[in-house]
Amino acid sequence: MSLKSYSRARAVHVMLVYTGGCNGCDIEIVNCIFSPKYDAEQYKIFLTWNPREADVLVVTGPVTAHNEKPLKAIYEAIPEPKAVIAAGACALMGGVYKNIHGDIPSEEICGPVDQVIPVDAKVPGCAVRPEDVLAGAVAALPKLLDAE
Amino acid sequence: MTIVDSLIAVLAVIGTLIVAFVVSVWLPGIERKLIQARIQQRIGPPLSSPGLMAPIKFFFKEIINPNSPMPKLYNALPLIGIIITLFLLMIIMPQLYPLAAFTSVIALVGLLKIEEVLYMFMGTLSKSVLSVKMPFPDVVKGAKHPEVPRSFIEELSSMRAFRLIAFGSFPIYLAIFIPVAMAGSIFIEDIVAYQQLHGPVLFSLAGILGAVVYFFGFMILLNEYPFSILKTKADVIEGPLLEYASKYRAYVFISRGLLIFVLACIFSTLFLGIPPNILSWTILLNIVVTLAFTILMAIVSAFSPIFTFKQFYPVVAGISLLGVLGIIASFL
Amino acid sequence: MDKDKITNETPKKQVIETEVPMGTVHSAAIEPYRIRLFVEDEIVKDAEITVGVNHRGVERIMEGLPVEKANSLTEKICGICSNSHIWNSVLVAEKALGIEVPERAQYIRIIMEELERLHSHMLYLAHGNEVLGHETFSMRLFYIRETVMELLRMIGGNRVQYGVSILGGIRPRADLNQMRIQKINEGMDFVEDKISNFAERFISDPMIMSRITGVGILKKEDALRLAASGPTLRATGVSIDLRKDMMEYDPFEFDVITQDDGDVKSNLLVRVLEIPEAIKIIRQAVKNLPEGGITNRSWEMYDTPITKSYIEVPRGKLYHSYALEEGRVRHSIVRTPSIANIGAMEQACIGCHITDAQLAVVQCDPCFTCTDRAIQIIKL
After folding, report:
1. Is the pLDDT of residue A99 over 70?
2. What CATH number has the domain bearing residue C297?
3. Which of A75, B31, B170, C77 gets the highest tally of CB atoms within 10 A of its CB?
4. Is the ipTM of this complex over 0.85?
5. Residue C375: is its pLDDT beyond 50?
6. Given CB atoms, is C55 within the 8 Å cutoff of chain B?
């Protein structure tokens, strides 16, 4: 393993962007970072709130209309290589909110996330379990490690 | 002084700088893993991750243009910070004492001042996406005060950096002048020589007061919790450092560890009479002092919330008063 | 609430130095919302909270759905107080259709609600400590909270959205047997012990006390005028707890906690002191748990006019209304406690140092996902 991939595997900075779900996934992800029981730092995953520092973007929620542009802005602010994890049913397929107007195209939900920004790993669950979030972060790692 | 002597001196300086780098990359890991994680009853990151692997990782990231009116100057600032920190280390090395004018406490204070001023520049030059630039329609019909000028959160940090320069650095300067008052000279050579004759400054009343004051000054200079008003998560997120990416962020990471080591070395020079010198076994004592400072700082920051100015002013005033008492005690 | 009167009270010719906008992604506010702080020399002179960022229109989706589906959809309004939403929507439907609920089911619903209050209050305290910058306390609270989450998972089968209440009772899965009761008792002992230790440590910490005393003051008159609800209102000295008026809570003994000052300290203390009260209710419910069935399946669906229900949830007063037609929801309105507290948040910010502004918002226990269902969205 080269120094590049080794160092990338040993320090992963995660940023959390929350785009309007029900708070459940959000709290569980924060839980998996802050709770001593899960303690993401032991897996070399650090929480940051600055897109310039982040490697991995964790997105929850079905990107609502007002959240689309901020999400894109934050995604663009992250320097390469970067990976995106979509966490939770809403982020994966719009959840229960997607069919807000039935057959009429929705003006309020722009999601799921992969219609707004490219997604590398998907974590299912409503709400996601902390263990699954950690597994998702690991699943997104190969993209980071193999990147230029 | 022969050529061989000066060659050895140059090699010693370079060797000490290398030791400083090697020690400083482990300090954030020690702080995070051994102290804070233990206090918080969790496992914590590996020792090498926060200080060593994170900067290496940032070196391999894409270099981007920061959102800044002067991107090149902005990106150069952490490098300037590292260079100033290295100068700080160099002027306390015994090999450079022949350059008398530079190896004085005045030069020390001046360089520390530049270190603080850098944050002001960083704050004014950073224009992050996280506040005003966030694409969100909030100034719309019916919004409150639509005509008010808008400022970035980094500008707040810049203002706070300005205030820190005004009053926040009192403790460390007062503490530095306690050994000066005891030795009766502003030259570091004389201060070291005085301590070799009369024993360390630390083992006197003035020295103990000075050490306490120095420790808090050290924390204020490093912007550690509880004194991290420049970069609190509660409002300014990371403040002046928001826009650093890739290798420039790596410099930010390195400069912090280096500053901890250098400030601890300054302490051991001024209060224990042990300048950092690779040619002597006493460099181990410097490293021990560094570790002690790191551990103490980690403990204090793990048990304290962020101070706002309401708490900051009285704390700084109290510590400064202690420093003044120390200076008075040093004349007794 | 007459919003015009409030805005008119601020002087017209207010000169403001600068505006600092924060959000929608910010470290102190995990949820997306925008706060514009009007600042003069780092002191907040005025604040404006823009909500509507998370608008998803849950009520709109609920219209036309069968009642059972609509009930489970109300749970998706909020991931923190999900049980209170499903409980209240089930209560409304039961009230409208005249369904009798077995007593055992009532007790188990109360147990779930109080467990939820426990985890919500602990989350609030952990978030408050995180905003204060005290990572250690925050992690400590998450550690204590984990016990409650495990209990919720044991009863409901999921850590966040457990969906215990159904029309006429509770899900069979959520019934309590002896092993579960024993685990609940053990968990309550653990939480009570740890929380009381934490509270002692928290109150005796001089640095924390100096940070939170006298910050973000909400006066009693302001709180009443802005129609604040729940613990935020109780922290200003108004002794109102809807649980005292709810017939579901009649068999239980508990005290209404109030504090006088309305600042961050009072808000935190109200929540800290409500945790033992919730534990008290859970213990009583578990001890006196009646025998019998848990679901009443003999009911019929018919058309009803608009029926309303108010209950007390961890954040305040929750309102649900239903009108049913042919077994489907014709009309539904949800009014969550956080929307009542938005005015209180803006008011509490004013006069704070800017570092305390987010703290003053957090002290009202905001839940912007709850809030944002019913806001009229501004066209871009």
Report:
1. no
2. 1.10.645.10
3. C77
4. yes
5. no
6. no
Phi, psi of B215 (to 5 degrees): -60, -45
Count of structural domains, chain C: 1
Residue contact B129–A39, C-beta within 8 A: no
Hey, are the CB atoms on A108 and C57 less than 8 Å from each other? yes
Residues of B in contact with C139 (CB under 8 A): 40-42
When CB atoms are compared, the residue of B41, B136, B233 closest to C24 is B136
Helix residue spans in chain B (DSSP H): 3-24, 27-29, 37-39, 54-59, 71-91, 105-125, 153-163, 170-183, 188-198, 205-222, 246-272, 283-302, 309-331
Structural domain contains residue B140: no
Mean residue pLDDT across chain C: 87
Nearest-5° Cα angle at A98, A92 to A99: 145
Distance from CA of C355 to the nearest CA of B (A): 6
Q: Scanning every residue of chain A, which has its alpha carbon at the shortest distance from the alpha carbon of B48? A: A10
State percent of chain A over pLDDT 70: 95
What's the rounded Cα separation, in Å, for the pair C321 and C337?
Answer: 15
Gap between the Cα atoms of C380 and A65, Å rounded:
9
Residue type, A30: V
CA distance C291 to chain A (A): 33
DSSP-derived secondary structure letter, B34: I
pTM of the complete model beyond 0.95? no
Cβ separation B129–A51 shorter than 8 A: yes
Q: Which two tokens stand for residue C288?
A: 């006196």
Q: Structure tokens of C285?
A: 């419910």
**Domain of residue B126, residue span:** 3-132+151-331
Per the structure, the count of domains in chain B is 1
Q: Whole domain around residue C286: which residue ranges?
A: 56-347
Structural domain includes residue B242: yes
